[in-house]
């Protein structure tokens, strides 16, 4: 199967490595608007050839979009317009409602599978690609009834090849849930980073004391702004609600601390500890 | 050297395992107000014998306090009152100002070394003890000039045996820095847990989508309320300031998202990413 991957960074690069290793694709065509990424992906053996997006639309049987969600939104209609009748397109974006809404009446909607493999690291670019990035993780497919049977089967087969666990859900549910269990975590990390960096301007040695707890909570602050800006934009309502609730919990915590109410801080912590059974 | 460890949970248990493994102490006397912990610590081979606190004060050459900071505050004067002239006491609490203030004029202040090994996990109890918990981490010693030379040398020797990197600093600086690089991280995690759990009441399947990012940011929410409540109480001013600044950053992030200002969210993320060079 001729497979084109649009976006040869962390996600696209990891996909290419895994699809080649498993034999799902013998040959990967890389598409990237960033020529540096393409060159790195070629020299790392992640992709086998490169093409422009219109060329890939002509050549490939499967086109996977592994680019920021604003870029998916920007090119998806053009891609569906240009592909052959049997070409299948799968996106890997971290938001689903706006993307599904965009193409819901497109004549080639059935050629498209809206999906989100929940995998990543805080690093970016082809050199961050990991062959086992997807292994054992969840892959979400949305609006499966709008994809043709062959398109859906191919996407499922690809994710099973990656050893992912597939869940089917509606895009609105996906976007609501992911706001709370991923998008909010990123904003909490970015804001922790900002808070600590502000204080470190005065307190130069402060990071000497940072241990595993700090690293763990702030790690995601290293994530790519190019990827995350558009996610926050496309999922703004859910994220804003989650963030508002998060701020309310922090204000309640601060109030208990300011009042010296340790009974209350302990109650809040006991309640939060129920998360033990969930993750 | 006869070594008593007061508190046989994660920290005290890990210390006991490491001191025995390295031969620093051949025999560990365990002290714990919780008889279950003592029994578990005995049966796991973490401690060799058990004693009451007054007994330990009579028997030991070195007494290490590995208990919550309110308990340290509560027993430290009594311990210094009861020990022999040459007995050395080291505390491992995560706050230092209040504890140092409490004993600054005690006639046996020189027998005491105020310290904080920056190591831990989100788990608690003797069964969570890890022999290499401290390895490669930082140990902070405060007000070193108030400890006698033999006391300071013994504490440093103990931390070096654990392969820790020792830093000397004033208690006020310790408490300020640790608020930003540890205590705040814990509150961010507890509040993330509370936010997600609230939504999960309505959205039962939500945690299906939780991946590595969520786990990483929320892991500390599993930490012991018994340990953390008193830390928040003793370091309340620094934590309240840090938490206030964190909330301000989150509000700024929310405003940018609500306004659809992706240029601004990207700016905030670019700035936060400087944390890359700090951890």
UniProtKB/TrEMBL annotation, chains A, B:
GO terms for molecular function: NAD+ binding; prephenate dehydrogenase (NAD+) activity; prephenate dehydrogenase (NADP+) activity. Keywords: Oxidoreductase. Pfam families: PDH_C, PDH_N. Residues 1-279 form the Prephenate/arogenate dehydrogenase domain. SUPFAM superfamilies: 6-phosphogluconate dehydrogenase C-terminal domain-like, NAD(P)-binding Rossmann-fold domains. One of its GO terms (biological process) is tyrosine biosynthetic process. Transmembrane segments: none annotated. It comes from the Bacteria. PROSITE patterns: PDH_ADH. Its EC number is 1.3.1.12. This is Prephenate dehydrogenase. It comes from Marivirga aurantiaca.
